[in-house]
Amino acid sequence: MSRTLRRLAVVTAACAATLLAVPAVASAHVTANPGTAQQGGYAKVSFRVPTERDDASTVQLEVDLPADHPLASVSTRAVPGWTAQVTKTPLAQPIQTDDGPLTEAVSKIVWTGGKIPPGSFEEFDVSLGPLPGDTDQLVFKALQTYDNGEVVRWIDTTAPGGPEPEHPAPVLKLTPKDTAAAVSPAATTTTDSGTGIVLGIIAIVLAVAALALSLFSRLRSRER
């Protein structure tokens, strides 16, 4: 019986170790939240930054705004401990606003001064608008810098129908004006995937535990 129990313990431990390693592989990325907004309107977008390293902290975030769809109004929310540096770039074609033509627009925001320790995340809020009506998404390329000098470039785009790249750029999906905003497909996939992983782990661990108890009960009954 002891040999069987030892084997069962080894199998259970191996399963648990493998399953617990899955969330690390499917770890969170730098994302734009919420994942959708309405064309022509204004939106508050939170760039959520998790620290995915066990031995380093995030100390800088750079977000590049899309040059092909410049935004007339961009403002940042103060984040305790962090300083936001906003860079503006001259526009090839001025943007017409209620206050007249706009000749430059924000092209980059860099947050520094703070620290996001391992196992934590921070959100950096930005108010954007008016959002363009001639595209169904805005891509914000982001660079995440750790205090060990490592820079993770969240700049890859997902091809239509293709798999998510290793370092996807934050994306804000745009829905037609006067249409109820749908949940972002990317956000839904991420959430559903994470939920499925957790539920799968729970189900398998419970199944292994139930099997162990069943075998143990059978062995005990035979000894009697």
UniProtKB/TrEMBL annotation:
<keyword id="KW-0472">Membrane</keyword>
<dbReference type="InterPro" id="IPR038507">
    <property type="entry name" value="YcnI-like_sf"/>
</dbReference>
<protein>
    <recommendedName>
        <fullName>YncI copper-binding domain-containing protein</fullName>
    </recommendedName>
</protein>
<keyword id="KW-1133">Transmembrane helix</keyword>
<feature type="transmembrane region" description="Helical">
    <location>
        <begin position="197"/>
        <end position="216"/>
    </location>
</feature>
<keyword id="KW-0732">Signal</keyword>
<dbReference type="Pfam" id="PF07987">
    <property type="entry name" value="DUF1775"/>
</dbReference>
<keyword id="KW-0812">Transmembrane</keyword>
<dbReference type="InterPro" id="IPR012533">
    <property type="entry name" value="YcnI-copper_dom"/>
</dbReference>
<feature type="signal peptide">
    <location>
        <begin position="1"/>
        <end position="28"/>
    </location>
</feature>
<feature type="domain" description="YncI copper-binding">
    <location>
        <begin position="29"/>
        <end position="174"/>
    </location>
</feature>
